[in-house]
Amino acid sequence: MAINLQKGQREAINAPKFVIGLGWDTNTSSTGSAFDLDASVFILGENKKIIADEYFVFYNNLKSPDGGVEHTGDNLTGAGDGDDEQIKIDLNKVDPRVSEICVVVTIHEAESRRQNFGQVRNSFMRIFDAATNETLLKYELEEDFSIETAVEFGRIYKRNNEWKFEAIGAGMKGGLADYLNKYN
């Protein structure tokens, strides 16, 4: 049975291989332009910085060099039910220097399309066991991000050799470049 988390809550992940599913719905009538949301993963060391450029996993770099993190590909529309984008995690393959895996969702060309997360609803992040497909944890973003164009959904982090998930739900006005500046 899945554990539903609230913003700020933390929970252990009891599966060595799991999949992060991210989903959302958009208000197509509000801007006249189609939405394209992108999930990205920042793989960080103890210093909260990306351990190497190749450890920034997104639609143009789908897999980390250690094979521990794999993005299944960019979903350009977000149409339909269920996960819009997925990220596969294999903790057995994750580089030992890694202490944190941050998951961020940004709106592609948000400024020119005049879009923000206030026009996005039903956003969620779930973690399910890769072997059984059982949903282990789920976090639904209930906050209204009226001006934000990027949201850090959550992070997976290691403490005392145990991997845990924290529901973050922190919005930011900016894009991928701003997160790269933060984590580089």
From TrEMBL:
One of its GO terms (biological process) is response to tellurium ion. Transmembrane segments: none annotated. The keyword Transmembrane does not apply. The keyword Amino-acid biosynthesis does not apply. Residues 1-183 form the TerD domain. It holds the Pfam family TerD. CDD domains: TerD_like. Keywords: Tellurium resistance. Belongs to the CAPAB/TerDEXZ family. This is TerD family protein. It comes from Mucilaginibacter mali.
